[in-house]
Hints:
- By secondary structure, the protein is mainly alpha-helical.
- It folds into 2 domains: 210 residues, 3-Layer(aba) Sandwich (Rossmann fold); 89 residues, Tyrosyl-Transfer RNA Synthetase.
- Helix content is 54%, strand content 6%.
- The protein is built from 13 helices and 5 strands.
- The protein has a 3-stranded parallel beta sheet. Strands 4-5 form a two-stranded parallel ribbon.
- α7 packs across α8.
- It binds tryptophan (TRP).
Amino acid sequence: MAEQKRKRILSGIQPTGTFTLGNYIGAVRNWAKLQDDFECLYMLADLHALTVRQVPAELRRHTREAAAMLLAAGIDPSQSLVFVQSQVPAHTQLGWVITCNSQFGELSRMTQFKDKSAKHPDNINGGLRSYPRLLAADILVYLAELVPVGQDQTQHLELARNVAQRFNNAYSPTFTLPEGYITKEGAKIMSLAEPTRKMSKSDTNQNSYILMTDDTDTILRKFKRAVTDSDGVVRYDPAAKPGVSNLMCIYNVFTGKAMDEIEREFDGVGYGDFKLAVGQAVADALAPIQGEYARILADTAYVDGVLRQGAEGASRLANRMVEKVYRKIGLLQL
Ligand code: TRP
């Protein structure tokens, strides 16, 4: 391809625990694929994780593990910047400017704020409400054009666009308005226990999710228990048959088979065999990633080196932006 400027992508994921199959299918797997066509920045959003109380030693460990998993899943640090949010102070620096350019009301309307406050009624902290401002800063500080996010983040992205627009109007054109980059099929993997809810690593029921580190026996056992329905037909119908449809999505991701093909393959076959086939496909796909993960994680110096290099690269871009914004809004430069 001719030297054409590639669009810049930024995405983030919270390092609050081992990634689930849902994180992999919905985000990480796609991140690896985007590297060829875009200039990618991938961030471990540890500051966002602080909106929920974290155990310090675990947060630290999970952050390294998350980095190792991104690398194991094919994110290539010679192509993309992989970094930890707190290692790039420009995010919080721009975050304050964004805070002063966003309205209280627009933050209170965020559905995720309402959901999360309902879930943690004992810790409705300021960060929970301000979270979309920091997220806006994460994106705007790099002038990222595309942001691969799940459906649950589109409202936050909208806020980022609004704030960027407002700032551009109040001062002068500064920020690019970011667009969501929503991946189609299999983007949202549901809980195995309650298939109308998203698969989540913070779910209290361990059978509801597959962890990227689960061994084959565990994977097969969890799929065997996956909630389906009572009509015994493998057919894709997310509204009427959420459990079966979710399993079909997962199977589709790892086998590449279309839904009608999957329906034919399991025509007249019981759910037991179907679930086993899905579980086996997942286990086979995860095995090589798990091997890589163990190898990379054992090399702490390597992981830290990647993160250091990522933070340096990201800081170079972000610091320039903060300086520009500070100048525009009248902060004294010496
Ligand atoms: N909020 C995202 C999550 O909870 C992570 C995130 C933080 C993010 N900053 C971002 C995603 C910027 C996209 C762009 O998973």
